[in-house]
Amino acid sequence: MPDRRFVSQLAHNEPVQQVFLASEKLLRPNKNGNLYLQVDLSDRSGSINTRMWNASEDDYKAFENGDFVVVDGATQLFQGTMQLIANRIRRARPDEVCEADFMTLQSADVDRMRARLVEILAKIQTPPLQRLVKAFVDDQSFMDKFCLAPAGMKNHHAYKSGLLEHVVSLMELVLVVAPRYPQLDGDKLLVGAFLHDAAKVDELSYERDIAYTDEGQMLGHMIMAITMVDDKVREAIRKDGMPMPEKLITEIKHMIVSHHGEYEYGSSKLPMTLEAVALHHLDNLDAKLASFTQLIKDCPNADSPWTQYFTQIGRKLYKGAI
């Protein structure tokens, strides 16, 4: 096989013969009734929408979502977006797959961020919040999943260990911002940053491709996180026999259910405390910068200082001087 070209490196009208990770495959009819296969192919640099024309049921069944596949085809620029037209897709043999090609974050990065997460959480001074956080950090199964899970399906940090990267970045923001606003309780804000997306460890499945679990699809991570917090509160009380301030825990839960900031974005409540307002805006800042950075990175317009127009954000993005 030729030397690997990552998704972010692919140019218009470039022949492709290499391994990708397959997800979200569909068999669809075109306007003439002929079937075609649509699938997202990805590596550590991003994903590319792929079509195989005149496909059959056998082509569709030749691999599963989450499989590594070998693809023969060529790229083409269509309406400002790079796509791949496949002539052939088959399941890859183990000896054809280099796992490092599909890891956005390397193990050393993950270990470093995990240590930093624990280091920041150790700064919390409020005793009940210390106890709550300890119940999570001492749960090895939870922490292992927390350090492996993505932060989402598509929008931002949508890769393994993306949740850890997002949360550590957000907590670093809290350490900078909270001291500048004395009216904010920095400990509450740190715990909110830690737990706001914590239930994504169970909302999503991420052994190979990223998908929603049944529970994640039906409940969502904000509702699931409330159950997680309740469980850890009970666990903390069992360990030391001390009560947990109910109003304080309610404020932590409120930050979780309101952190998307608007009803139309999935929050069941609007932010009503200063910490909830701060968490929403800091979370949105980190997510938006990560998302827009990825859009710029994936832009196929290599010779232009501008990206193509993105319908999902209603604008082009300026990449800077070439």
Describe this structure in words.
Residues 159-297 form the HD/PDEase domain. Keywords: Hydrolase. With 322 residues, the protein is an alpha+beta fold. The chain has 2 domains: 7-100, OB fold (Dihydrolipoamide Acetyltransferase, E2P); 104-295, Hypothetical protein af1432 (Orthogonal Bundle), CATH 1.10.3210. Helices cover 41% and strands 18% of the residues. The protein has a 5-stranded mixed β-barrel. A two-stranded antiparallel sheet has the order 6-7. α5 packs antiparallel against α6 (186-195). The longest helix is centred in the last third of the chain and has 25 residues, at 274-298. The radius of gyration is 22 Å and the shape is elongated. The mean pLDDT is 92.
| Neighbour order of strands in the largest sheet | 1-2-3-5-4
How many helices?
Answer: 11
The CATH architecture classification of the largest domain is Orthogonal Bundle
State the CATH topology of the largest domain.
Answer: Hypothetical protein af1432
How far is the first residue's CA from the last residue's CA? 32 Å
Highest CATH level, the class of the largest domain: Mainly Alpha
- The computed structural class is alpha+beta
Order of helices and strands: EEEHEEHHHHHHEEHHHH
Query: Which regions have little confidence, pLDDT < 50, spanning 5+ residues?
Result: none
The backbone outline, from C-alpha atoms, is elongated
Give the % helix. Answer: 40-55%
- Domain tally: 2
Specify the oligomeric state. single chain
What's the story with the biggest beta sheet?
5 strands, mixed, barrel
GO molecular function, one term: nucleic acid binding
InterPro entries: HD/PDEase_dom (IPR003607), HD_domain (IPR006674), NA-bd_OB-fold (IPR012340), NA-bd_OB_tRNA (IPR004365), YhaM_exoribonuc/phosphodiest (IPR050798)
EC number: 3.1.-.-
Keywords: Hydrolase
